[in-house]
Design a protein that fits this description.
Order of helices and strands of chain B: EEEEEEEEEEE
Radius of gyration of chain A: 13 Å
Number of strands of chain B: 11
Oligomer: heterodimer
Largest sheet of chain A: 7 strands, mixed
Structural class of chain B: mainly beta
Strand content of chain B: over 45%
Structural class of chain A: mainly beta
Order of helices and strands of chain A: EEEEEEEEEEEEE
Distance between the termini of chain A: 36 Å
Helix content of chain A: under 10%
């Protein structure tokens, strides 16, 4: 299985400030034949299912605010929120879908400072 | 608009078999590239992918749970069924049904159903 490790486990950021979450895989999730990174980011608010934010490492899902961005390639990835809003308080998960079983990181809890 | 809804028992005793049904709308599981899967999340923990079934009946299982899982589809009823045998209290979790398209991420999720295993 590909192991996904997120850092930090929790993060407190002031409103309007930038938040950054990292995700590292123990094997590359870049598929050479498509030149795509099979890496997604999800947001989960309490009592709700996860919501897809970013896929192919950097493509925003339709309707996701442009303050959310994804970057990285191979084994190292980052989710950034450029200007934190109150509604961004949630747990964020990275996931690789390069190979089965599709595995998730342990989650990063984002709070307001 | 894609919707998925999980149904099944909320409480099981140890050793019993769990049967969950995902009823979906907004897509067909006979369309090339489409997949439906099951993900679970124990309280306060991360997500675990259990099983996926694709339009061509290809099935993928979590290696650690493979011996306990069976996933099937009924395309005409727009349902996917997951069975998990020999349930244990450690299997207590919210179970989600998800949609996947053409090797992509899980782009639609059901609301989830909490399954508790307790004697």
């Amino acid at each position: 299985d590909i192991v996904m490790t997120q850092s930090p486990d929790s993060l407190a950021v002031s409103l309007g400030e930038r938040a950054t979450i990292n995700c590292k895989s123990n094997q590359s999730v870049l598929y050479s034949s498509t030149n795509k990174n099979y890496l997604a980011w999800y947001q989960q608010k309490p009592g709700q299912p996860p919501k897809l934010l970013i896929y192919w490492a950097s493509t925003r899902e339709s309707g996701v605010p442009d303050r959310f961005s994804g970057s990285g390639s191979g084994t190292d990835f980052t989710l950034a929120i450029s200007s934190l809003q109150a509604e961004d308080v949630a747990v964020y998960y990275c996931q690789q879908y390069r190979s089965s079983p599709h595995t998730f990181g342990q989650g990063t809890k984002l709070e307001i400072k | 608009q894609i919707t998925l809804k999980e149904s099944g028992p909320t409480l099981l005793k140890p050793t019993q078999t769990l049967t969950l049904t995902c009823t979906f709308s907004g897509f067909s599981l006979s369309t090339s590239g489409v997949g439906v899967g099951w993900i679970r999340q124990p309280p306060g923990k991360t997500l675990e992918c259990l099983a996926l079934i694709y339009w061509d009946d290809d099935k993928r299982y979590s290696p650690s749970l493979k011996n306990r899982l069976t996933i099937t589809k009924d395309t005409s009823k727009k349902q996917v069924v997951l069975t998990m045998t020999n349930m244990d209290p450690l299997d207590t979790a919210t179970y989600y049904c998800v949609h996947r398209l053409t090797y992509g991420p899980f782009d639609s999720w059901g609301q989830g159903t909490l399954v508790t295993v307790s004697s």
